[in-house]
From TrEMBL:
Region ranges (Disordered): 375-401
Record organism: Mya arenaria
Protein name: TLR2-like protein
Keywords associated with the record: G-protein coupled receptor, Membrane, Receptor, Transducer, Transmembrane, Transmembrane helix
Keyword NADP: no
Length: 401
């Protein structure tokens, strides 16, 4: 953009002999306790929850599915939010001046927008994958290799969108007679208006945030909502009732698919609820010159803490993984793979009875269709199975009946 007569002043003024012109604001102890408590809770849940999600998928081969790879990518972006923007936002809201120096002045907004865009783009990829798999089930599925390429593109696009912020934010120090004023300010490319006045970079700032919030967030949100609507309609039309044989297997698969769709749709809804208020206020304040609202920003960051709770609530594998990791942390011994297999085999081989002690079982008459071999023998129509009594260790017929 042409800067014209909008060049900022280059002369440095000396304010060291002048008292600070404003009264320093004080923060009440109640406000400190509330903000710090909320920040600590959100930050801890986000850190622990998303770290556990990543560990569960990494340590279990059974959990390494394409859908879980997407969720791990979401967990990584949420971890970035927990590592920096959450606590930076809380501390900054309690101080009148910027206390984090030059590096975080530039890197914190860069990290915030990178994580927000990475989450949004990952949700877009998830919605596209589910839409393609359910609406066109006969076509080839997305492989893990393709997923890795898509996720690399997600992060490249997110970093590219956030990179301008590294050049637009500046750390400034101003020494007054009684205080050192430090703040983190924005300097966007300025434009000369038709009347010769300077816009102070407001036009460039508006264009950037409208593109980020409106084009790159709200438009994909609308498309994803439509995609999940079509998916739900498709699943309802092809609902399969409980039957035997192959139909029963299809019913189980469809119920599993429906649970996954509900979980992913819940993740999208929570993201919309958490992010849209901040984005709306951000754009509104571009035209009114207002300040960011603490609650709206913290609500956006709380999405990072809510996602792991959604995974655990809708996915039994994640719940079991959480329990196993907690057992490991508590120094409890976890069963080995062979012990787990042995336990499952014994459970499947045990004779199921209703509230009848095993020691009281003796001979149970039953009928077997002629021609069926049991342990190499072909019994007649009327047979007797000898169930184990107290002290009996073997059964005459196969336990797989």
């Amino acid at each position: 953009m042409s800067s014209g007569g909008c060049e900022p002043p280059t002369q440095d003024y000396d304010f060291s002999a002048i008292p600070y012109p404003s009264e320093l604001q004080s923060v009440s102890s109640r406000e400190v306790v509330v903000k710090v408590s909320l920040g600590v809770v959100v930050n801890l849940v986000a850190l622990v929850g998303n770290a556990l999600v990543i560990i569960i998928v990494v340590r279990s081969k059974r959990m390494r599915t394409t859908t879980n790879y997407y969720l791990v990518n979401l967990a990584v972006s949420d971890l970035l939010v927990a590592l920096m923007p959450i606590w930076v936002h809380v501390v900054a809201s309690l101080n009148e001046f910027w206390v984090f120096g030059s590096f975080l002045c530039k890197f914190n907004p860069f990290m915030q927008i990178t994580a927000m865009c990475a989450s949004m783009f990952t949700l877009v990829v998830i919605a596209g994958d589910r839409f393609y798999a359910i609406m066109f089930p006969m076509h080839s599925r997305v492989t893990k290799r393709k997923v890795s390429y898509l996720l690399i593109l997600v992060w490249m696009a997110s970093i590219a969108i956030a990179t301008p912020l590294l050049f637009m934010y500046y750390y400034i120090e101003r020494q007054w007679a009684d205080v050192l004023e430090t703040y983190c300010d924005e300097k966007w490319p300025m434009k000369t208006e038709a009347d010769g006045s300077c816009d102070g970079g407001l036009t460039s700032k508006k264009v950037y945030w409208i593109v980020v919030c409106g084009v790159l967030n709200w438009t994909p949100m609308l498309i994803m909502m439509l995609s999940y609507t079509f998916i739900v309609i498709k699943l309802r039309k092809h609902k399969i009732g409980p039957k035997l044989g192959a139909s029963s297997k299809s019913s189980v698969q469809q119920r599993s698919t429906r649970k996954v769709v509900i979980m992913l749709f819940s993740v999208l809804l929570v993201f919309i609820v958490c992010a849209v208020p901040f984005q709306t206020i951000k754009i509104y304040f571009l035209f009114t010159q207002g300040q960011q609202d603490f609650g709206a920003v913290l609500l956006m960051y709380s999405n990072a803490a809510i996602n792991p709770i959604i995974y655990a609530g809708f996915n039994e594998s994640f719940r079991n993984g959480f329990k196993d990791l907690v057992n490991c942390i508590m120094n409890r011994r976890t069963p080995t793979a062979s012990e787990t297999f042995e336990t499952e085999y014994k459970q499947r081989s045990t004779v199921r009875t209703k509230n009848v002690p095993l020691a009281t079982l003796t001979r149970v008459p039953f009928t077997v269709q002629e021609g069926i071999e049991l342990n190499g023998q072909t019994p007649g129509k009327d047979c007797t199975a000898i169930e184990p009594t107290a002290g009996t260790s073997q059964m005459p017929f196969s336990s797989r009946l």
